[in-house]
Amino acid sequence: MKDQDAKTLSNTQRAVRDLRQMILSGELAAGTDHLESELAETLGMSRTPIREAALMLESKGLLEMRPRKGVRILPVSSDDMREIYDILTELESLAAQRAAEAGYSEDELAVLAGSIAKMDQAIEAEDLEAWAEADELFHQELVRLGGNKRVEAIVAMMSDQVRRARATTLFIRPLPVKSNEDHRVVFQAISESRPDVARERHREHRLQAQAMLCGILEKHRLTSL
Amino acid sequence: MKDQDAKTLSNTQRAVRDLRQMILSGELAAGTDHLESELAETLGMSRTPIREAALMLESKGLLEMRPRKGVRILPVSSDDMREIYDILTELESLAAQRAAEAGYSEDELAVLAGSIAKMDQAIEAEDLEAWAEADELFHQELVRLGGNKRVEAIVAMMSDQVRRARATTLFIRPLPVKSNEDHRVVFQAISESRPDVARERHREHRLQAQAMLCGILEKHRLTSL
DNA sequence: GCATTCTTTAATGTATACGCAAATAAATGC
DNA sequence: GCATTTATTTGCGTATACATTAAAGAATGC
C-alpha cells in the first residue's frame, strides 16, 4: 500500500494501478478470463471504475474486452515481442540521437550515468533483478532525454509488456555483460554530442538484444503454452 | 449515416466515431471545452458511453479530460507535429524495410501501386484533396505491408492528428511533385526486395516532408492562435 | 438418439441517481 | 472598498438498476 490510496486517487486510477500490478505479477495469468463483476468485487468497487480502467488497459494492450466473455488477459507471444522490440529499436535509437543533439550537461546526464553504474554493481553481485531494474531505468531515462513526449508514452506502454516477457527470459539469458558495454558506448556518444554514433550504436545494441531474447522466447514457447 | 448505426454498433462505438469525426472536421474546435453532459445530449445518449468514448480518444491524444473543466479538444501545435513526424519517420521507414524483406508479389503490391497512380492523377488534375487521400492510402498501405500490427496501430493513431494539421498545410505547401517521385522510388525498392534502400529512401522522404510541413506550421502559428 | 427450437440465465451496455468536491457567487468583517 | 469566509451551484466520480442479447440448457419433434 502506498501512502495515498483512498485519498487523492480516484477508484478508476486505483483500478488501473491494481489491475496492472496484478497482471504484471502474474496474479491475473495470461490467457485467463475475468468478469467485470468479479474484478469489481476483488478490488472492492463497482463495475463502473473497473470498466473505465479496463478500457485504458485495453488501449495499452494488456487485456482485451470481449462481450460475454469477460476481460481476457492477453498473453505475450514471441511474435508480440518481435513487434515490440522492433518498435523500441527504432524509437529508442531516435531518442539516443536526439539526446546527443541536445548537448546535455554532465549534471543532466547524471541519472543515465547512475543507471549504468547500478547495472555494473548488479552484474558484480550477480543480482539479476537489480540489473533489470537499472536497465529499465537506463532505457526510460534515455527516452526522456530524447525529449519526445509521445515516444515516451509509447515506450512506457510497451515496457509493461516487455516486463512481463522478462519474467521468462531474465534467468535464462546469459549474464548481460555485453549489454553493459553497449550502454556505456551509447552514453559516451551522447555526452560527446555525436548523434549519428549514438543512434547507430544504440540501434545495434537493440537489434542484438532482440535477436537473443526472441530466440529464448521462441525456444520456451512450448513450455509456456 | 452509414448502413448500420443503431444496429450493430454500440453507443460507445458510435460516440467514438462521431466525436472523432466532429474533431477532425473542426465542428469541435481545437482548444474548446465541452461538458460530458453537453456531448451526451448532442449525440443523444447518456453520459456513460460518452465517458467511455472520451477515455479512448484521450488515449489517442485527441482530447483531454479535466475534472470540472469538461473535455478539452487538444490543439495540434507545430511542436506536436514535429514529435509526430519524428515517430512516423522511424516507424514507416521500418515498415518500408520490412515490406521489402517480405518479398511481396506484384499482386500484393497492387494497392500501393494504385495509390501512387492516384497521386499522379491528382497532381495532373491539381486536386489536392484527392492527392491527400491517395497519399494517406500510400502510407497506410505501406505500414500494413510492414506487417507489424502495433506499428499500424500507432501510425493510425497519429494519422488522425496529421489529418488535422493537413487542413492547415495542404493549400499552402508547394504542389507535391517531388513527393510523388519519392514514393515511386520507395515502391521500386520494395518490389525489388531491397530493404536497406527502401528504408533509407523513405526516411529521406519523410525527413524532407517533415521539414517543409513544420516550417509552414511554424510560420502560420500566429495566424491560428 | 440427434437435431432443432424454445427457454432460461447471465453478463454486458447503458441510463440514472446521488454524493462530493471544486469553482463561483454572496456576504460579512475589517 | 477589499479581503476573507461562507453558501451555492455545478459537473464529475461512482454506485446501482435495468434492458439487451448472446450463450447455455431443456424440451420437443422426428
From TrEMBL, chains A, B:
Keywords per UniProt: DNA-binding, Transcription, Transcription regulation
PROSITE patterns from the UniProt entry: HTH_GNTR
InterPro entries: GntR_C (IPR011711), TF_FadR/GntR_C (IPR008920), Tscrpt_reg_HTH_GntR (IPR000524), WH-like_DNA-bd_sf (IPR036388), WH_DNA-bd_sf (IPR036390)
GO molecular function: DNA binding; DNA-binding transcription factor activity
HTH gntR-type domain span: 9-76
Pfam families reported for this sequence: FCD, GntR
KW Ubl conjugation (keyword) present: no
Protein name: Putative HTH-type transcriptional regulator YdfH
Natural source organism: Ruegeria meonggei
Gene label: ydfH_7
